[in-house]
Amino acid sequence: MADAERKTTFREVFRLAEFRAVWVADLLSVAGDQVTRVALAVLVYAKTGSAALTALTYALTFLPALAGPLLGGFADRYSRRNVMIVTNSARAVLVAVMAIPDLPLPALYALLIVVQLMAAPHDAARGALLADILDGDRLVVGNSARNVTNQLAQMAGFAFGGGLAALINPHVALLVDAASFTLAALLVAVGVRSRPAAATAGSDGPSLWQSTRQGLRLVAGDGRLRVLAVLAWMIGLSVVPEGLAVPYAAEIGASPAAVGLLLAADPLGMAIGAFVLGRFVRPERRVRLMGPLAAAAGIPLLVCATKPDLILSMALFALCGACAAYLVVVGAVWARIVPDRMLGQAMSLYLSGILASQGIAIALTGLLAARIGSADTIAVTGVVCLVIGLGAALAWRRNDSPAKSPNEAA
């Protein structure tokens, strides 16, 4: 494990042509997803004038959390590079069809569901492929770089998508998204070398359902993976302030225009935290900091009970996001422990849990906020985050042993 413990720089990671190709393709996909969300919300509201249908449209973009564990097995059964190329190409075609004017709403929803379902095998393949390309500390630093730029890409995608939808029309915004998926597919096809599938496909291998069950058994049977799952999936608690930003702004006496600033604070903090972890913290210390940082993410939220002003609230949300950047380390350790033949499936479980936890946390805290107010709800979330994080930190110390490489774990 000497290589895994050697500190890597961002420059060293970006020297790798394959990483650069996946990194740029990922940026395009992430930004395109945000453009789609905004464009579809504008399009559906213009068509129907219904806030409920607009909200339903946005909710449909989170479907990969439901189907991810089942579809993620494709990333092990087939070449991960090819899975990314096929899913990006298919999404490009489907999003282009969605841009057709006067498309019936049921058809639009059906296309959206298929587009979002394809994100599950794509994201699983990307996560596993990065573990193929980057070894040891390179994977942590690579994940840190992805996290920093993806947070910025999300904010840019929202802003760019909103501008396109408002200044031109949502159909053009969707065509831009289709072009981004096409370019992402080309980048992976040209910039990433072909590798064989990690597991057997076809009649000789397990079915997708069997692969899903094997992945669940793998996580449930390994104490380290169970703790990592808790650390990863509790990230939903850290994004609660985003879900409650609108009512929270009203409670602290901020204007509606301040909501955008509150929403930007958390991802900006996470981008800064990911950069600091990747640039200034030694590899072995990053792993030890996972649990403490997960717990620390809840501390700034406790202060929200005092209903601080806008500037302090933004600072608190950013500090929470900076602590939540521990997630980039969790993903890298997860990839080192899981056997390569099941990495795509396990990555799908990991990523789907992260997405689902955010939706569940925001939904539940929304109900609580209706009773006790947004500021107090965010503070309660901070308490829960602190308690779970401390428990996970202690559990990791009990279960931790020198992280195995994929070959050692196989």
UniProtKB/TrEMBL annotation:
Q: Tell me which InterPro entries the record gives.
A: MFS, MFS_trans_sf
Q: What is its main location?
A: membrane
- What's the protein here called? MFS transporter
Q: Which organism is it from?
A: Kibdelosporangium aridum
Q: Which Pfam families match?
A: MFS_1
Cellular location(s):
Cell membrane
In its UniProt record, a GO molecular function of this protein is: transmembrane transporter activity
Q: Does the keyword Cell division apply?
A: no
What keywords does the record list, in alphabetical order? Cell membrane, Membrane, Transmembrane, Transmembrane helix
Q: How does it sit in the membrane?
A: Multi-pass membrane protein
Show the stretches that span the lipid bilayer: 51-71, 92-119, 172-192, 227-250, 256-277, 314-337, 349-372, 378-396
Annotated Gene Ontology cellular component terms: plasma membrane
